[in-house]
Specification:
single chain, 9-stranded mixed β-sheet, 11 strands, 504 residues
Length: 504
């Protein structure tokens, strides 16, 4: 019995093992295409392997329980969250890895998985083509690449059966690990689908999701913000809603939800500003919590439809055509229920830019919706080095002041990107919850202060971070200058002597 326990523990699939095996699989594509392109092949294969191992374990359990009673086994399998025919498992791909048309076979497997799980997985593989000649080369070359990919995922250490995993979030965390790695490689392109984990955690803690909450992200990307928010709830009593414009990223998000064991999230595909898809009684559906990291200062965001918006989102003013930051803010405000909380990541320009943005900012403050302004450091996000801020809004606020936090000087410096540690996050959250006044870090500004500053929210107007220079020792400075002058005179004298010797 003891040996069985030891053996069982040794066979557990750890987080680091999964990460290492999957990251090594990326070698198959390096030098062939950019990580922004090959991420879809890697993440899709991880998802298929996960579904297959999940199905395999369920089948093993049922066979052990019901023996050869195939009718009973099939009936039970139909009630599982995923249905998988033996002709669309990862093992099926392994058996056919030498096939001359491997790309076609993989595509058919994906189609079958979608077809058999239409209610959950419809459209999830729409943007991926394993038979793409332009990306993967001619048939012979393509087959070699895909065979290598299947063999990489066949690594015996990559056992993704639920009972073999070290923890509940191993697969989901591996998925997040890969997305972060791809983000690091891909640069600017990646900003549309990835919010750094630390920032997601911070924002989730600020909006304080509770049991029973409906949580919404109108620009959900790969879903990291929604997932982090759900983890703050502390139970499975929540519902996630997201909308994403990019088809590939929408698919990533849906896969990410399933890999984190969130099987009832509703993730829609479409342009949130031009075509919001969460409606109730022909009006915008409202939520308890709204979070987002919308694309910074997006141009062509949909200004052409704003004046005729039937949902009344732009009643305060229409944001500039070339900067869509406040378009997303106004949509989010309109999506809050009477007791809703909202957190949004934005560039600092929204704090002080004038014209229509200034009018919107003034109205939001006058309506007593803005609760806090938190300044973050620069070089925190992939694809942009500019500093960002978090704005926290609340419906039904009990006070009229606004908390300002300057968290831009406390961070962990990284090789390529800066980072917020758990300690930094905890300090920000604690300061926010307590609405603390901390010298050179935070200030609670009255409405009168905001009005005196003409509704300009630039953080240095409220949090003084100026550091006075220490006193100068005049006598010591004089002596230092005299010593430098004497040294310079000696050098000049020697130079003159050398030149004289050279006859110059």
């Amino acid at each position: 019995m003891k040996n069985d326990i030891i053996e069982d523990a040794m066979q557990k699939t750890t987080q680091s093992t999964v990460n290492d095996v999957i990251w090594k699989a990326c070698d198959t594509f390096r030098g062939i295409m950019s990580s922004d392109e090959y991420k879809d092949y890697i993440l899709t294969m991880l998802f298929v392997k996960y579904l297959s191992d999940f199905y395999k374990e369920k089948l093993e359990q049922l066979q052990k329980k019901h023996g050869n009673r195939q009718d009973r086994i099939k009936a039970k399998l139909k009630r599982e969250k995923f249905k998988l025919d033996e002709s669309c498992t990862f093992d099926y791909l392994v058996k056919h890895k030498e096939a001359p048309n491997l790309g076609e076979i993989i595509n058919k497997v994906l189609e079958k998985i979608e077809e058999d799980n239409k209610d959950k997985l419809e459209g999830i593989f729409r943007s991926i083509d394993f038979n793409n000649r332009n990306k993967l080369g001619d048939t012979k070359e393509r087959n070699v690449i895909l065979k290598n990919l299947i063999e990489d995922f066949s690594d015996s250490r990559l056992d993704l059966r639920p009972s073999r995993l070290e923890g509940n979030d191993v697969i989901g965390d591996a998925y997040e690990y890969l997305i972060a790695k791809f983000a690091s490689d891909a640069g600017k392109k990646v900003g549309e689908y990835y919010t750094p984990s630390a920032v997601s955690s911070l924002l989730a803690k600020l909006v304080e999701p509770k049991e029973g909450d409906m949580i919404y992200d109108p620009t959900c990307g790969s879903g990291s913000l929604l997932i982090k928010a759900s983890k703050e709830v502390g139970s499975k009593n929540f519902r996630l809603y997201g909308q994403e414009k990019n088809g590939q990223t929408h698919a990533l998000c849906k896969m990410n939800m399933f890999l984190h064991e969130i099987n009832d999230a509703i993730i829609e595909w479409g342009d949130t500003i031009r075509n919001p898809l969460y409606l109730q009684d022909n009006l915008l559906k409202t939520f308890d919590v709204v979070v987002a990291n919308p694309p910074f200062s997006l141009d062509k965001w949909g200004a052409e439809i704003a004046s005729e918006d039937r949902f009344g989102r732009f009643k305060y003013a229409i944001p500039p055509k070339s900067k869509g930051d406040y378009a997303f803010v106004l949509h989010m405000i309109s999506s809050l229920n009477p007791h809703g909380r909202m957190g949004v990541i934005l560039p600092h320009g929204v704090l002080f830019r004038g014209s229509s943005e200034g009018k919107i900012r003034k109205k939001l403050i006058e309506q007593n919706l803005l609760d806090a302004v938190i300044g973050l450091l620069s070089n925190l996000f992939y694809g942009t080095s500019i500093p960002a801020c978090i704005l926290v809004f609340k419906k039904n606020r009990i006070h009229s002041d606004i908390l300002f936090i300057d968290a831009s000087r406390e961070y962990e410096k990284g090789k390529n990107q800066n980072n917020l540690t758990e300690e930094h996050i905890a300090k920000i959250v604690q300061t926010y919850k307590n609405r603390s006044e901390i010298e050179k870090y935070s200030h609670v500004a009255t409405l009168e202060e905001i009005q005196e500053n003409d509704y300009n929210l630039n953080i240095p107007r409220y949090v003084d971070t100026f550091e006075e220079e220490g006193p100068v020792d005049i006598e010591a400075t004089k002596k230092n200058i005299a010593a430098i002058e004497n040294s310079l005179a000696e050098i000049k004298s020697k130079m003159s002597q050398y030149l004289k010797e050279l006859g110059l």
